[in-house]
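Board notes (copied after class):
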Amino acid sequence: MRHYTSQSLSAQERYKLISGSLIPRPIAWVTTLGSQPDPVINLAPFSFFSALPAALPILSLAIGRKNGQPKDTANNLLDNEEAVIHIVDQPLAQDMNKTAASLPPGKSELDLIPEKTIPSRSVAVPSLLEPKIRFETKLYQYGSNQG
């Protein structure tokens, strides 16, 4: 068996090792709203998320940084403290992959796909129509590790 230490691998190699080893895993497809005055719907897939099904069920997202800066999803969550986490199944995988594109702030990934939104019931963030499972969530805790 091969042995690697975290220090012997680059950040990209660590990511590839973990993402290629932990399979199959569900993908969280997350909608958030940008800040006022003209809130844009941000839509992004996350392959690292988990759940703690306790008295207070908690879903966790691992949101990386881009060029050392927080991604739109993280900024939107911190600003508005709401998100909708959708579970992706096979028929939605191709559209989900398209929304992994890096777009400038103020542009919506929804413009890249034919997916429609509907109002959520518990949060202001719209939900995607097609996914069979969605969790309307409120931010519970945020932790930052820039190391």
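Comment from the instructor: The first strand starts at residue 28 and ends at 33. The chain has three helices and ten strands.
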